[in-house]
Write a structure and sequence with these properties.
By secondary structure, this protein is of the alpha/beta class. It has 15 helices and eleven strands. The chain has a seven-stranded mixed β-sheet, with helices on both faces. A two-stranded antiparallel sheet has the order 1-2. The protein has a two-stranded antiparallel ribbon with strand order 8-9.
């Protein structure tokens, strides 16, 4: 397994909730999987075995290392980036130029370098998260206002939380169950590689979050909310596959699509919606602040909820752009000319 396979696998693990727009979850040898079935027996392919070998021989032992040691990997990857070996360099450069046309080449280069520094730190932090204990998790990410979440629990109210691929969104969702009595669901897109998918689901759920494939979202939300107050997490800055079934708005200076999921579910069940604002305090330390976007979703509607979400995320990105995931091909799909007509009909 070469360096590119390693980097791609790490990146797959990091963004496994939302593959980049216009791509699939099939990421070369390290993350593609299929089965050869015959005579009632299904045998894993070579790719499956190699992925399992990689996880148990490299990822799990690395996850046991202290984060300062893992940051040596980040430093090495960053050094390679400075030498010209940067993941999706062209995509990052194009995204930054389109988003900040007023900035000079030197300013854009500074943002790009800062982004890759954070991105490679994210790789080390994600590896460590899979082996992190309760005390370290509480130390690495602090919820600044858990009383807001506990208020919903005391009022026996379920809610929806939305966030973007900003700062360490994985760690923020990972530790949230430690700060509240709310039952926690995380809606995600399963990976095609079942080995990595099962590994990440188990890791994310160690503190109580139940990972739910998006195709089962309604069923699991209804079942959970009928028994106890539940908070359901959505990463809502992905690029939807179907541009006709997406919410469109101006975002970072461009027409941008957002998945309707969180807004539709909030409206359907009249759930309050909060935004998870993740801030980086220092290397390896973050703070999560919950901001109420909407109390009466049924009255407001999905479009207004998603508009409020996009404005909160946009403000964070403009303030500190280096912490958003610029490797996404976020604007690959354009808004269809007949979008209004089709949706009106």
């Amino acid at each position: 397994m070469n360096f590119k396979s390693l980097e791609t696998t790490m990146k797959c693990i990091i963004i496994s909730n939302a593959p980049p727009c216009g791509t699939s979850n099939q990421f070369s040898l390290s993350v593609s999987v299929s089965y050869l079935c015959g005579g009632g027996q299904c045998k894993p392919t070579f790719a499956y075995n190699m992925t399992k070998f990689f996880i148990y021989l490299f990822i799990k032992p690395m996850a046991a290392l202290p984060l300062p040691v893992l940051y040596l990997l980040s430093d090495f990857l960053y050094l390679l980036m400075r030498m010209g070996f940067a993941y999706r360099k062209k995509v990052v450069i194009a995204n930054l130029k389109e988003t900040f046309p007023e900035k000079s080449d030197a300013e854009l280069r500074s943002i790009r370098f800062s982004f890759y520094r954070h991105f490679y730190d994210l790789i080390s932090e994600t590896i460590r998260t899979t082996g992190m204990g309760r005390s370290e998790a509480l130390k690495r990410c602090r919820v600044t206002n858990p009383e807001l979440l506990n208020q919903f629990f005391e009022e026996n109210r379920s809610l929806i939380a939305v966030g973007g691929h900003y700062n360490n969104w994985e760690l923020a969702a990972f530790v949230q169950p430690l700060y509240t009595q709310l039952y926690t669901l995380g809606i995600y897109s399963p990976l095609s590689n079942k080995t990595i998918d099962q590994f990440m689901v188990k890791s994310r759920g160690k503190f109580g979050m139940e990972m739910v494939p998006k195709r089962l979202a309604i069923r699991r939300m209804e079942a959970s909310m009928s028994r106890r107050p539940t908070i359901t997490f959505f990463l809502s800055d992905q690029c939807p596959k179907n541009p006709y079934r997406a919410f469109w708005t101006s975002f970072l200076g461009r027409e941008t699509s957002f998945p309707y999921g969180a807004g539709v579910y909030a409206t359907k069940y009249n759930l309050p919606v909060i935004y998870g604002r993740v801030e980086k305090v220092s290397r390896g330390k973050y703070e999560l602040t919950c901001i109420v976007l909407e109390e009466n979703s049924a009255r407001t509607g999905a479009d207004d909820i998603l508009e409020k979400f996009s404005r909160e995320l946009e403000a964070q990105i403009i303030d500190k752009p280096e912490f958003w995931l610029w490797t996404h091909k976020r604007w690959k799909r354009a808004k269809p000319d007949d979008y209004e007509k089709v949706n009106k009909d």
